[in-house]
Design brief:
The protein has two domains: 37 residues, no CATH class; 184 residues, 3-Layer(aba) Sandwich (Rossmann fold), CATH 3.40.50. Helices cover 44% and strands 17% of the residues. The strands form two sheets. Strands 4-5-6-3-7-8 form a six-stranded mixed beta sheet, with helices on both faces. Strands 1-2 form a two-stranded antiparallel ribbon. The chain is elongated, with a radius of gyration of 21 Å. The N and C termini lie far apart (63 Å). 29% of the residues are buried.
């Protein structure tokens, strides 16, 4: 047992003094020697989850505690986010509207809290995702790549349908969005979306997709923020 516990391991990312980076350690239980997983394995698992999510840099600065609540609309939005975290399974949380209103910060915070509860998550900026996927269409690689976004327990899509001066997404962009979100709709997978488009704009581009977003947010979690964020916060119950 002493020899086993003194042997250094090869795990990376965290230097554990307890298991010496083996991931396991041995104890003596009555007449038996038992190998147990080290406590550091949960930390290593959480660290891998964060790295795979694509949120590593954002998680350092975007937390619920850091979300500003000086205005009444901010308090309401934060309260909705906290409520969503408690009942997120099978639901969607969507923040739409004005740039600079804290959409990315709050949606990242929600995703982070769900990851802390053990839900694997993935983050993507929609334009970057479509730039990667469009050249792969009609290939096996496309199927493999897009499946990761379709099946993950929690998906956060940031800047949905944002294309700078080109405000309207292309047919291929809409097709990718439909493939991912229809799968998640049918399988009731938790989805988080932020976008500068309001729901009327999304419905005008693709009514079926807009209707699914509408439905999956229920009567609480479709949040629209007008340009005058100091006063004209709108929470619409549908």
């Amino acid at each position: 047992m002493r020899l086993y516990n003194s042997r250094p391991g090869t795990l990376e990312g965290y230097d554990c003094p307890k298991c010496l980076n083996r991931g396991t350690y041995m104890i003596e239980e009555e007449t038996y020697e038992i190998v147990l997983d080290c406590d550091c394995m949960q930390f290593r698992s959480d660290k891998r989850m964060i790295e795979r999510s694509g949120l590593a840099l954002l998680l350092e600065k975007y937390t619920l505690d850091n979300f500003e609540t000086t205005n009444e609309w901010q308090k309401k939005v934060k309260g909705l986010a906290e409520h969503f975290i408690e009942e997120s399974k099978g639901k969607w949380f969507v923040m739409l509207g004005n740039s600079g209103a804290g959409k990315t910060m709050l949606c990242t915070s929600v995703t982070s809290e769900l990851m802390k509860r053990g839900y694997p998550a993935k983050y993507t900026i929609f334009r970057e995702l479509t730039t990667k996927l469009k050249p792969l269409m009609n290939t096996d690689e496309y199927i493999r790549e897009i499946f990761e976004y379709k099946r993950v327990n929690v998906l956060y899509i940031d800047d949905f349908w944002k294309y700078g001066y080109q405000r309207i997404p292309s047919e291929a962009d809409v097709s990718i969005a439909l493939e991912i979100l229809n799968y998640r709709y049918n399988n009731k997978l938790t989805t988080i979306i932020s976008s500068e488009h309001l729901i009327d704009s999304i419905l005008a581009i693709d009514e079926a997709l807009g209707s699914r977003i509408f439905e999956m947010c229920g009567d609480q979690y479709l949040i629209q923020i007008d340009k005058d964020t100091s006063k004209n916060y709108r929470l619409r119950n549908f």
